[in-house]
Specification:
Helix 2 (44-59) crosses helix 9 (263-277), helix 4 packs across helix 11 (298-318) and helix 6 (164-176) packs across helix 11 (298-318). The termini are far apart. 44% of the residues are buried. The protein has two domains: 30-125 and 251-318, D-Maltodextrin-Binding Protein, domain 2; 126-224, 3-Layer(aba) Sandwich (D-Maltodextrin-Binding Protein, domain 2), CATH 3.40.190.10. The protein is an alpha/beta fold. The strands form two sheets. Strands 1, 2, 3, 4, 7, 8 and 9 form a seven-stranded mixed β-sheet that branches. Strand 5, helix 6 (164-176) and strand 6 (181-184) form a beta-alpha-beta unit. It is globular. Helices cover 45% and strands 18% of the residues.
């Protein structure tokens, strides 16, 4: 009888917790929500604000974008979310680097993709290889020949050590036998500024960050990292077409929360974001930034994050990048 009462008490307690969790999720959010972008202003945060505006308008509370640059590959901002209370009030708007690349190449990054709850992927697009127009090349093959003929003279920036552009530059060395030199910055904007000024010569970055400079002929595009040509840039070959086998990469933006965040809250955020991605207005806003809208369930996004982490760990190993 005592055991039966104990089991009944436990069941009742669990039911109460379940109801309480559900009630919290239904009322969420009741105060402003912080969305941390782990890079300097002028890059990823522009896309993050499109998503923040959608969440604010539907859920009735401010979703405030905060740039928190620093650490290896955006690790300061990412760790702030990984260690935050899993209550839905601190979110991460991430690119591949902080979540799926930096943990594989930075010894001091004491988190990985398992420390996050996948909420929603927002956009997905190839990366673009651009050069300073003063560089006397017009194709990837000419770039390879020039780099091999001028060892140590070609430098490529990245938004930070352990970011996707960093690993793509290293992969370029692996695939071509060239020796281009990495120069880490704190964000895309300063990388692009020095590329335009000629302090560095070539750069891999997402289309959203490069589009205005390509359209203004300030930077010269050479190729995309997609598997096939883009409708937006039909004249640009892929890295595969340029003779670099296996040189494929996807740049994505997504929303994540600390691991342990209520699935009800995660699903609520996912639904609002995915419903927004169906709207022509939001699609147009993202495409103007060079981002192709993409939606997925939290479960699908989680599987994708795991595969991305494995992929970039393999690239780091092939490039002989040791944890720093």
């Amino acid at each position: 009888m005592v055991a039966r009462r104990t089991r009944a008490g436990i069941a009742a307690a669990c039911l109460c917790v379940s109801f309480a969790t559900s009630a919290v999720a239904q009322s969420y959010p009741v105060r402003p929500v912080k969305i941390i972008v782990p890079f300097a202003p002028g890059g990823v945060d522009v896309t993050a604000r499109v998503v923040a505006d959608r969440l604010s308008s539907v859920l009735g509370q401010p979703f405030l974008v905060e740039n928190r640059a620093g650490g290896a590959g955006g690790s300061v901002g990412a760790k702030a979310v990984a260690t935050a209370e899993p209550d839905g009030y601190t979110l991460l708007f991430s690119t591949p680097g902080p979540v799926t690349i930096s943990p594989a190449v930075n010894r001091n990054v004491d988190y990985d993709s398992r420390n996050f709850a996948a909420v929603a992927i927002v956009s997905s697009s190839p990366l673009m290889l651009v050069i300073n127009p003063a560089l006397p090349v017009n194709s990837v093959q000419e770039l390879i020949a020039y780099a091999n003929a001028n060892p140590g003279k070609i430098h490529f920036p990245s938004p930070g050590y352990g970011t996707q552009p960093h690993l793509l530059g290293e992969l370029f060395n692996v695939k071509t036998g060239a020796s281009i030199t990495h120069v880490p910055y704190r964000g895309s904007s300063p990388s692009i500024t020095d590329l335009i000024a000629g302090q560095v010569q070539i750069y891999f970055d997402n289309v959203a960050n490069l589009l205005q400079y390509v359209q203004a002929d300030t930077l010269k595009p050479l190729a995309l990292t997609s598997e096939s040509r883009s409708e937006q840039f039909p004249q640009l070959p892929t890295m595969l077409e340029s003779g670099l086998d296996g040189f494929v990469a996807t740049y994505w933006n997504g929303v994540l929360a600390p691991a342990g965040t209520s699935m009800e809250i995660v699903s609520k955020l996912n639904t609002v974001i995915n419903d927004g991605l169906k709207l022509l207005e939001m699609q147009a806003s993202l495409r103007r930034l060079g981002a192709e809208p993409k939606s997925a369930s939290p479960q699908e996004f989680a599987v994708f994050l795991t595969s991305e982490a494995q992929k970039w760990a393999a690239v780091a190993a092939a490039a002989n990048i040791k944890p720093d």
